[in-house]
């Protein structure tokens, strides 16, 4: 039976790790199935005790928070000062700072603000040997020449415990409008996405939801009221969309795909290859795709051979399919390793040479 470690400070975590054996890190447990099956572990380290918002000065528009702080709590703190962290991963009441960084989680607002890698400016990592490494922020030189904040993003805790992170913030938008156009084929979705760019419109979110073989496209504008109104009118004129009477209902449908199941996958391809993605994904799966990003998610049920066919089709176009939850027996969650895999191995040797942290969960068994 694995020992449970519950540090209350970063220093306690650093003291625990050297003798903890093989360790699994657990935050809000929203993405525990992401990646390959975890190998045997001796200890489970829970980050709930690392719950401080370490520093927040609204005039700097920067916040520093420990790993166990939930996204909902962090957002409530900064929104009280008219600011927001422009990350919108699923399940914010459970998703934690450490987990969001480690998984690289994101939501539809990535279309405007970027992902974790774009908003993180500093990080503290506790390595397997207990060494505490800091990078970014006010630190001039990063550890061993690595850009530590970028290295931490999406590492799934296989390089170290993401103990705290520093993010840059944005003002809370004054107004928001979601425009919807229904019943589109994948080719038309791409046309609208390209048209938004060509018309110099700047939505914060663009999401296509598949329903009965067709797509409902939601386009969200946020910012100053006058600008939002102007962009919404222009989108209506160009694309025949209308203002959603219940915008929350559209985005709730999106959230249901992101958190549904029993199977969940993430797909990526060139935005112009959306028709290929649509054809590749079985109709049994609900789809939420961000056509301006070339990224999307699907949830529902599918046979392993259907997933293998979908992955092969996407790879032909330079895309990918990763299983986030409900991994079928014998199916590789990640697929073939990329050309950058030697660099990943080098990072693993540098940070966790004994391969004790979240063993086997990452690409290629790292």
Can you give a write-up of this model?
A hairpin with a 4-residue loop joins strand 16 and strand 17 (295-300). The protein has helices spanning 10-16, 71-79, 97-103, 110-113, 116-119, 148-152, 186-198, 225-239, 247-259, 274-280, 304-316, 341-351; strands spanning 3-5, 23-26, 43-46, 53-57, 62-66, 83-84, 120-126, 132-136, 161-168, 170-171, 175-184, 205-211, 214-223, 242-243, 263-268, 285-290, 295-300, 320-325. It is 30% helix and 27% strand. The strands form four sheets. It has an eight-stranded antiparallel sheet with strand order 14-11-13-12-16-17-15-18, sandwiched between helices. The protein has a five-stranded antiparallel sheet with strand order 4-5-9-7-8, sandwiched between helices. The chain has 366 residues and is of the alpha+beta class. Helix 10 packs antiparallel against helix 11 (304-316). It has twelve helices and 18 strands. It folds into two domains: 3-171, Uridine Diphospho-n-acetylenolpyruvylglucosamine Reductase, domain 3 (2-Layer Sandwich); 175-325, Vanillyl-alcohol Oxidase, Chain A, domain 3 (3-Layer(aba) Sandwich), CATH 3.40.462.10. The chain is globular and about 65 Å long. The two termini are 23 Å apart.
CATH level 1 name of the largest domain: Alpha Beta
One letter per element, helices H and strands E, the order comes to EHEEEEHEHHHEEHEEEHEEHEHEHEEHEH
Shape: globular
Average pLDDT metric:
94
> What does the main sheet amount to?
8 strands, antiparallel
Whole-number total of structural domains: 2
Kindly name the structural category: alpha+beta
CATH topology type of the largest domain: Uridine Diphospho-n-acetylenolpyruvylglucosamine Reductase, domain 3
* Cα end-to-end separation: 23 Å
What is the tally of helical segments? 12
Report strand %. Answer: 25-35%
DSSP, total strands: 18
The percent range for helix content is: 25-40%
Strand order of the largest sheet: 14-11-13-12-16-17-15-18
Low-pLDDT runs: 138-142
Radius of gyration from CA coordinates: 21 Å
CATH architecture grouping of the largest domain: 2-Layer Sandwich
């Amino acid at each position: 039976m694995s020992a449970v470690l519950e540090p209350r400070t970063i220093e306690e975590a650093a003291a625990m790790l050297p003798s903890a054996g093989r360790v699994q890190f657990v935050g809000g447990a929203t993405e525990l199935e992401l990646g390959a099956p975890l190998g045997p572990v001796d200890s489970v380290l829970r980050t709930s005790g690392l719950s401080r918002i370490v520093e927040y000065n609204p005039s700097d528009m920067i916040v520093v928070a420990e790993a166990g702080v939930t996204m909902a709590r962090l957002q409530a703190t900064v929104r009280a000062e008219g600011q927001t962290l422009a990350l919108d991963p699923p399940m914010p009441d459970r998703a934690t700072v450490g987990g969001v960084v480690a998984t690289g989680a994101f939501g539809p607002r990535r279309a405007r603000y970027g992902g974790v890698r774009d908003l993180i400016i500093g990080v503290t990592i506790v390595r397997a040997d207990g060494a505490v490494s800091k990078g970014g922020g006010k630190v001039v030189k990063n550890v061993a020449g690595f850009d530590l904040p970028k290295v931490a993003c999406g590492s799934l805790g296989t390089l170290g415990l993401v103990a705290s992170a520093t993010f840059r913030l944005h003002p809370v938008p004054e107004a928001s409008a979601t425009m919807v156009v229904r019943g589109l084929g994948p080719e038309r979705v791409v046309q609208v996405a390209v048209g938004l760019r060509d018309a110099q419109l700047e939505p914060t979110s663009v999401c296509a939801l598949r329903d009965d073989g067709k797509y409902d496209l939601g386009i969200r504008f946020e910012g100053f009221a006058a600008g939002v109104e102007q962009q919404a009118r222009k989108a209506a004129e160009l694309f025949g969309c209308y203002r959603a009477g219940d915008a929350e209902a559209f985005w709730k449908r999106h959230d249901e795909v992101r958190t549904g199941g029993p199977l969940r996958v993430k797909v990526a391809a060139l935005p112009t290859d959306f028709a290929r993605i649509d054809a590749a994904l079985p109709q049994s799966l609900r789809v939420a795709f961000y056509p301006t990003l070339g990224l999307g998610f699907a949830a529902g049920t599918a046979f392993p051979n259907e997933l293998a066919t979908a992955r092969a089709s996407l790879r032909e176009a330079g895309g990918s399919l990763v299983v986030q939850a409900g991994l079928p027996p014998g199916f590789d969650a990640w697929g073939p390793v990329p050309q950058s895999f030697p660099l990943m191995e080098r990072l693993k040797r540098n940070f966790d040479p004994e391969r004790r942290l979240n063993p086997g969960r990452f690409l290629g068994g790292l």
